[in-house]
Amino acid sequence: MTPAVKNKSPLTPVLIIPGFMSSALTVEKSPQKSWNGKRIWLNLSQIGFQSLRIGGALRENEKFRASQQNNPKGNKSGESSDALHQQYMKEVECKSRWVQHMCLRDDMKSEKDGIEVRPVPGCAGVDYLSSGALTESFTYVFGPVLVLLKSKGYKEGINLDAAPYDWRLSPDMLQKRDKYFTNTMQTITHLYRQSNNTPVIILCHSMGCKTGHFLFNFVRFHLGEDDGQKWLDKYIHSYVPIGAPHIGAPKSVRAVID
After folding, report:
1. For residue 156, which of 194, 100, 130 has the smallest C-alpha distance?
2. Does residue 224 register a pLDDT over 60?
Protein backbone atom coordinates (compact mmCIF):
# COMPACT_ATOMS: atom_id res chain seq x y z
CA MET A 1 0.00 0.00 0.00
CA THR A 2 1.48 3.36 -1.08
CA PRO A 3 1.71 5.82 1.82
CA ALA A 4 -0.24 9.03 1.36
CA VAL A 5 1.80 12.01 0.27
CA LYS A 6 1.23 15.05 2.40
CA ASN A 7 0.61 18.31 0.58
CA LYS A 8 3.37 20.77 1.30
CA SER A 9 2.04 23.84 3.07
CA PRO A 10 2.58 27.06 1.11
CA LEU A 11 5.21 29.46 2.35
CA THR A 12 3.80 32.30 4.40
CA PRO A 13 3.94 35.33 2.08
CA VAL A 14 6.11 38.29 3.07
CA LEU A 15 5.68 41.98 2.26
CA ILE A 16 8.64 44.25 3.04
CA ILE A 17 8.24 47.90 4.02
CA PRO A 18 11.67 49.62 4.17
CA GLY A 19 12.83 52.42 6.42
CA PHE A 20 13.68 56.07 5.94
CA MET A 21 15.85 56.71 2.86
CA SER A 22 15.78 52.96 2.15
CA SER A 23 13.51 53.06 -0.88
CA ALA A 24 15.25 53.64 -4.19
CA LEU A 25 13.94 56.62 -6.17
CA THR A 26 13.97 57.14 -9.92
CA VAL A 27 13.32 60.14 -12.18
CA GLU A 28 10.14 59.66 -14.20
CA LYS A 29 9.99 63.19 -15.60
CA SER A 30 12.63 65.90 -15.88
CA PRO A 31 13.35 69.09 -17.83
CA GLN A 32 16.76 67.48 -18.48
CA LYS A 33 15.77 64.67 -20.85
CA SER A 34 18.98 62.75 -20.11
CA TRP A 35 17.81 62.34 -16.52
CA ASN A 36 14.55 60.60 -17.42
CA GLY A 37 14.56 57.02 -16.19
CA LYS A 38 17.67 57.46 -14.05
CA ARG A 39 17.86 56.19 -10.51
CA ILE A 40 18.50 59.25 -8.40
CA TRP A 41 18.50 57.67 -4.96
CA LEU A 42 21.00 56.44 -4.61
CA ASN A 43 23.18 57.36 -7.59
CA LEU A 44 26.73 57.69 -6.31
CA SER A 45 28.14 59.05 -9.55
CA GLN A 46 25.70 61.97 -9.54
CA ILE A 47 26.79 63.07 -6.10
CA GLY A 48 30.49 62.77 -6.85
CA PHE A 49 31.38 59.40 -5.33
CA GLN A 50 33.43 58.37 -8.33
CA SER A 51 35.61 61.45 -7.96
CA LEU A 52 36.66 60.71 -4.38
CA ARG A 53 39.93 59.22 -5.54
CA ILE A 54 40.86 62.49 -7.26
CA GLY A 55 38.75 64.81 -5.11
CA GLY A 56 41.84 66.24 -3.44
CA ALA A 57 43.40 67.06 -6.79
CA LEU A 58 40.23 68.82 -7.93
CA ARG A 59 40.06 70.92 -4.78
CA GLU A 60 43.76 71.77 -4.86
CA ASN A 61 43.46 72.79 -8.51
CA GLU A 62 40.54 75.11 -7.71
CA LYS A 63 42.42 76.62 -4.77
CA PHE A 64 45.41 77.28 -7.00
CA ARG A 65 43.24 78.93 -9.67
CA ALA A 66 41.59 81.10 -7.02
CA SER A 67 44.96 82.16 -5.56
CA GLN A 68 46.20 83.20 -9.01
CA GLN A 69 43.07 85.22 -9.68
CA ASN A 70 43.27 86.97 -6.29
CA ASN A 71 46.99 87.64 -6.55
CA PRO A 72 48.02 87.62 -10.21
CA LYS A 73 51.50 89.07 -9.40
CA GLY A 74 52.26 86.53 -6.70
CA ASN A 75 54.29 83.34 -6.89
CA LYS A 76 53.20 81.48 -10.03
CA SER A 77 55.01 78.27 -9.25
CA GLY A 78 52.84 75.36 -10.21
CA GLU A 79 50.33 75.11 -12.97
CA SER A 80 46.56 74.79 -12.95
CA SER A 81 44.86 72.18 -15.08
CA ASP A 82 42.04 73.28 -17.36
CA ALA A 83 40.98 69.65 -17.68
CA LEU A 84 40.59 69.30 -13.91
CA HIS A 85 38.73 72.61 -13.80
CA GLN A 86 36.29 71.45 -16.47
CA GLN A 87 35.72 68.20 -14.58
CA TYR A 88 35.14 70.17 -11.39
CA MET A 89 32.55 72.40 -13.08
CA LYS A 90 30.75 69.36 -14.56
CA GLU A 91 30.53 67.80 -11.11
CA VAL A 92 29.19 71.02 -9.59
CA GLU A 93 26.53 71.15 -12.31
CA CYS A 94 25.66 67.48 -11.83
CA LYS A 95 25.32 67.83 -8.07
CA SER A 96 23.18 70.95 -8.49
CA ARG A 97 20.82 69.09 -10.79
CA TRP A 98 20.74 66.18 -8.38
CA VAL A 99 19.72 68.52 -5.56
CA GLN A 100 17.15 70.17 -7.84
CA HIS A 101 15.52 66.80 -8.52
CA MET A 102 15.63 65.59 -4.91
CA CYS A 103 14.40 68.74 -3.18
CA LEU A 104 10.73 69.46 -2.65
CA ARG A 105 9.22 72.93 -2.60
CA ASP A 106 8.93 74.87 0.64
CA ASP A 107 5.55 73.24 1.32
CA MET A 108 7.46 69.92 1.67
CA LYS A 109 4.99 68.10 -0.58
CA SER A 110 5.26 69.54 -4.08
CA GLU A 111 8.02 68.89 -6.59
CA LYS A 112 9.76 71.46 -8.74
CA ASP A 113 8.20 72.31 -12.12
CA GLY A 114 8.59 69.53 -14.66
CA ILE A 115 10.11 67.06 -12.20
CA GLU A 116 8.59 63.78 -11.05
CA VAL A 117 10.59 61.46 -8.79
CA ARG A 118 8.98 58.18 -7.76
CA PRO A 119 9.99 55.05 -5.83
CA VAL A 120 11.34 52.05 -7.71
CA PRO A 121 8.53 49.45 -7.40
CA GLY A 122 8.80 45.99 -5.90
CA CYS A 123 11.82 44.25 -4.42
CA ALA A 124 14.15 46.10 -6.80
CA GLY A 125 13.40 49.24 -4.80
CA VAL A 126 14.57 47.80 -1.48
CA ASP A 127 17.45 45.44 -2.27
CA TYR A 128 20.43 47.74 -2.86
CA LEU A 129 20.40 51.53 -3.07
CA SER A 130 23.19 51.45 -5.64
CA SER A 131 23.52 48.30 -7.69
CA GLY A 132 26.94 47.16 -8.86
CA ALA A 133 29.72 44.82 -7.82
CA LEU A 134 31.58 47.55 -5.93
CA THR A 135 28.64 49.38 -4.34
CA GLU A 136 26.20 46.66 -3.30
CA SER A 137 28.34 45.62 -0.33
CA PHE A 138 27.86 48.97 1.43
CA THR A 139 24.48 50.13 0.05
CA TYR A 140 22.47 47.01 0.80
CA VAL A 141 19.07 47.35 2.43
CA PHE A 142 17.09 44.10 2.19
CA GLY A 143 19.33 42.54 -0.46
CA PRO A 144 20.76 39.77 1.76
CA VAL A 145 17.29 39.07 3.22
CA LEU A 146 15.82 38.72 -0.28
CA VAL A 147 18.61 36.35 -1.30
CA LEU A 148 17.95 34.21 1.78
CA LEU A 149 14.17 34.12 1.28
CA LYS A 150 14.53 33.22 -2.39
CA SER A 151 16.93 30.42 -1.48
CA LYS A 152 14.15 28.99 0.69
CA GLY A 153 11.70 28.95 -2.20
CA TYR A 154 10.14 32.39 -2.10
CA LYS A 155 9.25 33.90 -5.46
CA GLU A 156 8.82 37.60 -6.12
CA GLY A 157 5.24 38.50 -7.03
CA ILE A 158 3.93 35.19 -5.70
CA ASN A 159 4.74 35.07 -1.99
CA LEU A 160 7.32 37.84 -1.74
CA ASP A 161 7.06 41.54 -2.52
CA ALA A 162 7.98 44.98 -1.23
CA ALA A 163 6.21 48.31 -0.86
CA PRO A 164 8.80 51.08 -1.38
CA TYR A 165 7.62 54.64 -0.88
CA ASP A 166 8.77 58.21 -1.41
CA TRP A 167 10.25 58.84 2.02
CA ARG A 168 10.35 62.58 1.38
CA LEU A 169 6.58 62.75 1.82
CA SER A 170 4.28 62.57 4.83
CA PRO A 171 1.92 59.56 5.05
CA ASP A 172 -1.14 61.56 4.02
CA MET A 173 0.68 62.81 0.91
CA LEU A 174 1.80 59.28 0.08
CA GLN A 175 -1.85 58.34 -0.20
CA LYS A 176 -3.00 61.56 -1.85
CA ARG A 177 -0.33 61.60 -4.56
CA ASP A 178 0.63 57.95 -5.03
CA LYS A 179 -2.34 56.03 -3.55
CA TYR A 180 0.35 54.24 -1.57
CA PHE A 181 -1.81 52.66 1.12
CA THR A 182 -4.64 51.51 -1.14
CA ASN A 183 -2.03 50.09 -3.55
CA THR A 184 -0.31 48.31 -0.66
CA MET A 185 -3.64 46.80 0.35
CA GLN A 186 -3.99 45.47 -3.21
CA THR A 187 -0.47 44.02 -3.05
CA ILE A 188 -1.31 42.24 0.21
CA THR A 189 -4.51 40.85 -1.30
CA HIS A 190 -2.56 39.63 -4.33
CA LEU A 191 0.05 37.84 -2.18
CA TYR A 192 -2.74 36.29 -0.11
CA ARG A 193 -4.51 34.87 -3.16
CA GLN A 194 -1.32 33.75 -4.89
CA SER A 195 -0.36 31.83 -1.73
CA ASN A 196 -3.50 29.73 -1.43
CA ASN A 197 -5.27 32.26 0.79
CA THR A 198 -2.41 32.47 3.28
CA PRO A 199 -2.23 35.67 5.38
CA VAL A 200 0.78 37.92 4.83
CA ILE A 201 3.70 38.76 7.13
CA ILE A 202 4.40 42.50 7.16
CA LEU A 203 8.18 42.82 7.60
CA CYS A 204 9.17 46.41 8.40
CA HIS A 205 12.36 48.24 9.28
CA SER A 206 12.92 51.55 11.07
CA MET A 207 10.53 54.23 9.78
CA GLY A 208 8.89 51.52 7.67
CA CYS A 209 7.51 50.20 10.96
CA LYS A 210 5.64 53.46 11.44
CA THR A 211 4.54 53.34 7.80
CA GLY A 212 3.19 49.84 8.40
CA HIS A 213 1.50 51.02 11.58
CA PHE A 214 -0.08 53.87 9.61
CA LEU A 215 -1.24 51.30 7.03
CA PHE A 216 -3.18 49.36 9.67
CA ASN A 217 -4.87 52.51 10.91
CA PHE A 218 -5.58 53.56 7.33
CA VAL A 219 -7.35 50.25 6.66
CA ARG A 220 -9.65 50.85 9.63
CA PHE A 221 -10.33 54.39 8.47
CA HIS A 222 -10.72 53.46 4.80
CA LEU A 223 -13.04 50.49 5.32
CA GLY A 224 -14.55 51.47 8.62
CA GLU A 225 -13.57 50.23 12.08
CA ASP A 226 -15.37 46.86 11.93
CA ASP A 227 -14.75 45.98 8.27
CA GLY A 228 -11.20 47.26 8.54
CA GLN A 229 -10.45 44.99 11.48
CA LYS A 230 -12.00 42.05 9.62
CA TRP A 231 -9.72 42.82 6.64
CA LEU A 232 -6.66 42.91 8.88
CA ASP A 233 -7.63 39.66 10.60
CA LYS A 234 -8.11 37.98 7.23
CA TYR A 235 -5.09 39.21 5.27
CA ILE A 236 -2.40 39.93 7.88
CA HIS A 237 -0.54 37.03 9.46
CA SER A 238 1.78 39.10 11.66
CA TYR A 239 3.48 42.45 11.95
CA VAL A 240 7.28 42.12 12.34
CA PRO A 241 8.92 45.47 13.19
CA ILE A 242 12.73 45.66 13.16
CA GLY A 243 14.36 48.64 14.85
CA ALA A 244 11.02 50.37 15.19
CA PRO A 245 10.93 53.96 16.50
CA HIS A 246 7.54 53.44 18.18
CA ILE A 247 8.51 55.72 21.05
CA GLY A 248 10.19 58.24 18.78
CA ALA A 249 13.89 58.86 18.22
CA PRO A 250 15.08 60.43 21.50
CA LYS A 251 18.77 60.19 20.58
CA SER A 252 18.22 62.87 17.93
CA VAL A 253 17.46 65.35 20.73
CA ARG A 254 21.10 65.14 21.81
CA ALA A 255 22.22 66.46 18.44
CA VAL A 256 19.83 69.42 18.72
CA ILE A 257 20.83 70.25 22.30
CA ASP A 258 24.56 69.84 21.72
Report:
1. 194
2. yes
